[in-house]
Amino acid sequence: MVTRAAPLLLVAPTRFGAMERGAARWWCAALLLGVVATAGLADASVRPAAELLHDSIVAAMRHGGRYYETFRDLARTAPDAPNARVLPPTLAAVSAAMPAWATLLLIGAALAGAVAVGVQRLTALFAGAPGQVMAALLLVAGTAAAALLWEQAPHAGWAALLTGYALLLRRADRWVTAAALGGAAGVIDPAALLVPALMALLALYDGGIREASGWLVALALGLVVLAVHLWTMAAVVPPPLDAAPVLPAPAGAAARLLGAALPGVAPWLAAPLLLLSLLGWAALPRGLGPRAAALLVAALALDGRIAGLHSATLATVLVAPGLALAPDAVADLLRRAPGRRRITVTRVTR
């Protein structure tokens, strides 16, 4: 029988606390090799490309221009036109209908909501004030990274913020609002259609038929919006004849996530931190942890394969908070790996 050791910072032990000795040793070896490999191979982190065409379209729509006609006129000289043509006009229409200060208030409200929900959700996992403060600060850092991403790439920033908000808000008995946020992210950025699809699969795995149906409705809404947009775009602006090939392993996915989630951190340090964050989320034996870990892996693996857009930055908000869970994950692995047998000596006095 495997006994669980007392947790380090969390309220309850991680899933690694009940792991067998052999499995724990394999995990420790894989973690060590992964940290060394990521530190040696990560030589760069890149920020997502600026959405220059989006800003120009919004400015033109505020002066009476129409989205598709404006796109046709500006796409000839815009360097980001190939990626921008698959972005629905949702965000541009909302931004053009609102003054700049209202847009700032909207993004500020979304950031505040994500922080409030995330702090309530994450601090409940920790037993003492040190862990709770660390988790709250790292969550603020994650949302700040999403704000910086929004400033440079509005579609990717909104998708990352709404994705993190949806995952932090989602519970087994409170998934309707989370599904709505995931659907909104997919309507803004087609790369975020990964979120409702993944959440629906995980809900089916857990036996939540109603929740899976809600996520599938959000996915269907995003797909309908994308299909209508692509049909209209093809009629107004014909696609180029030479289509870019789909890469089996898109280059730069990890670099884009590192540049968005950990801006300013040296790549040789940011890459191991990303691995530790993934380990922390995966070690959490609750619904939030496996979903965050699955999103991190899927966003990196499918980057560049969803409508030609980059999905790696969807996990921007989740990377920093995952580091708060890593100490307990590593501690439980190190406790289980030695696995020394305990010999009990009993003295019998006659």
Helix-strand layout with pairing:
Blueprint: H1 21-41, H2 52-61, H3 67-74, H4 81-84, H5 90-97, H6 100-123, H7 129-152, H8 154-169, H9 176-188, H10 194-205, H11 209-236, H12 253-261, H13 267-283, H14 288-301, H15 316-322, H16 326-336
Concise structural overview:
The chain is mainly α.
**Structural class per helix/strand content?**
mainly alpha
N-C termini distance: 33 Å
- Report the helical percentage: 55-70%
Mean pLDDT: 86
> What sort of overall outline do the alpha carbons produce when their principal axes are compared?
elongated
Structure description:
With 350 residues, this protein is mainly α. The protein has helices spanning 21-41, 52-61, 67-74, 81-84, 90-97, 100-123, 129-152, 154-169, 176-188, 194-205, 209-236, 253-261, 267-283, 288-301, 316-322, 326-336. Helix 2 crosses helix 3. Mean pLDDT is 86; it is low at 243-250.
Keywords summarizing the entry:
single chain; 350 residues; mainly alpha; 16 helices; 0% strand; elongated
